[in-house]
Amino acid sequence: MTKGARRGAPAKLPMGAPPIDARFLSQLREHVAAREIERGIACLRLHQDLIAKLDPSQGNAGRLLAQLAIWTDIGFSGTPLRDILQRFEHLKPELRSKLAIADYICLRMAEGMTAMAEEAMERAIAHFDFVLSLEQELDDRFLLAIVYFWKGRCLRRRGEYDEALIYTVKGKELALALGHPRMAAVMQVLEGWLFFQQGKWKEAVRISQAAERVLAATDDHVTLGNIQSFYGRMARREGRFDKAIEFFESAIGHYGQRDPRHLNLARSLANMALAKRGIALQLQKRIDRDVQLRRKTSASREALPKTKTSVETSGKSAYRSRLTQLRREALEHLEAARAIYQLRPNHHGAGTVYLNAAYIHLDGGDYQRAEKEAASAYELAEEKQDYILMGRSRILECMIANAKVEEEIGEGADPGSHARRALEFSQEAIDLAKHTQHHLLLANAYLWQGLTQCNSFFDNPEAARASYDLARASCGANQPDNNMLQDLQTLSAKILRKGSVHPALKAWSQGAVGEKTFRQISDEFAEIVIARVWEREGRKVSRAAARLSISPKKVRRILARVGRQKPRKR
After folding, report:
1. Sign of the alpha-carbon dihedral angle for 116, 121, 126, 129
2. Domain spanning 3-217 has what CATH number?
3. pLDDT tens string 153-170
């Protein structure tokens, strides 16, 4: 750039249209600060011709470009920002280099927002870092507050919550110093979410409620919807699914007032589907408990009056009907969200829809559809290097593989294929989660590694215990949701059960051998030990034989005797 440009002097570009009216720019800025969304959009519509014909050579062109980036982010849908940016990008190098430094910074700011909207977070952060590195040259604390906030949003999407909080708070403090509490309140909503991710729930609620009070009198329906959505996600994490649904419905109402096809509306539909899945899981557990109870009391039930049996049968039918209805409604919400993402592509959102649908299909025992949806979620996430969504997808694929292990589905000639695949998925999920600061994601990955190590194929309680300890440690101050808590309890119970001393071994150690001879005790001991070693060695006869220094034939004979393998045909 020229020496004059570095000092912020007007760019010596070919003369074009007259400069942008500073009063117009000031109005746009005031509407942003006051969160007067409709008034701001109306102001932009009055100047549609000016925007459509924006010439990089005009005075204040860069400032208008920055305002258009802000308003596009808010929801203005006039001339696409990408089209306007191309006019700047197509400038000849010698003309681009003559842009005033302030205009060039505004250009980079707009390019960063466009990259953020395209989910190219690395590229967006590079643009924002450039802007922040020239803070003194820009000399515009209003725009700097926006850039700090935008960088915080990018870091949050990457799962870098600690750093995201630093930039978000910096943006909020700049907005407050400028006397713009409503603008600061928008940033507080993100601040509250980041505190929530750090396990600081009370602080998160306090900050969010304060922001809600400040914005209540505005028509910033997107931010108000975001607050309701945040409350819904907190309620869902706590297992208050009915309340979560109320919050998500409120969020959808707010988003719909801005745009019936808003991306955040699709996100709330996907979240509502998860809340209904939560209710369905609770109902399924109640049905399962009732089935177990009926099995235990089947003898006494035969003597009950027929009217009683009829009532119970009717109740059971009502439960199953409600369960079916909840799953159907959840899938309908996801289809509605998917339709929005087809119109307005968003990898993270569309991937979340695939993921949530996979959970519902898994719950219903449709492993094939669950696998397909989970794989689609991973593919979309991988395109944008979305580590959080990639990690969630791998955890779900681990869950599906484990379900197949327990159901003994489709293993064919390789009985350990699903188990090994499950372990690979869990280990990959751990690696992906380590790219982020999403502590519960990492904890869930360790948890499912432990559940895999403890399944009927690996049966390795020692390794599972180590994974369990890592899962608990990874949670830190974060409170797991109900599903994760129950999975932790399941893993803990399995470790205790499988890690306990075999009753026969405990009895023999105390000299309680009953009427058994030493030969009988030796044979039973061999059955216990050989079966356990075979499991630990990946169910490989040759490895178990080598480990115990006995013949493979003896291993196979013992395994056949205890029903772990079919005897070989002679």
Report:
1. positive
2. 1.25.40.10
3. 999 999 999 999 999 999
